[in-house]
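Below is how a single chain appears once it has passed through the pipeline. First comes the sequence as given, then the structure the pipeline wrote out for it. We keep one example in the README because the format questions we get most often are answered faster by looking than by reading.
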Amino acid sequence: MSEILDDSARRGRGRARATSKAELERIGLDLFIDRGFSTVTVDDIAGAAGISRRTFFRYYESKNDVAWGDFSRLMEGFAEALDRAPADASVIAAVRDAVRGFNQVPSEELARHRHRMIILLKTPELVAHSTVRYAAWRAVIADFVARRLGISPRDALPQAVSWACLGISLSAYEQWIERPDADLLALIDASFRGLRDVFSAVVIDAEEPA
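Resulting structure:
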């Protein structure tokens, strides 16, 4: 990986300028992987991308945001995946499939995906920043659950499910990081199977008269 990144750095001095948010994200992530998140600056990313610091801020508000990539677009895709879920699919099955899709990357990108998750989950200065991202992720799930059940997203059950799904997903990531030979999608499937059983029981209990 380092020789690839060294080449990127060399090209940064005479390369064509980064022309998309995705390209800038890739350059930034390469630098984070090679040097460590904490040591990379906005100026480093801008320089490697062949753009000015001012132009960098047209794409991202901070270095922290680069680690997440185009999060708004990802959330839009996540919500659309839930909207496309078959009406006869259970709530948990629909969320599981959407989470799987969120993490379904080409085999050649798996190493980068793992590195990204290591950076997001293990970098202290990103932990607090990630809280806002997690809240947006949970809101997508809470909205979907609420629509399915005909209740408010702020009600206890949609909120509980959204928190549980976040915990399950983070747990799957943690296991994947610790076990490089493991299959991330299989870990997600295994985790959601347990939640499905619990959620089904909770919904039945909620529907029964007191």
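The chain is about 75% helix and 0% strand.

See the next section for the split statistics.
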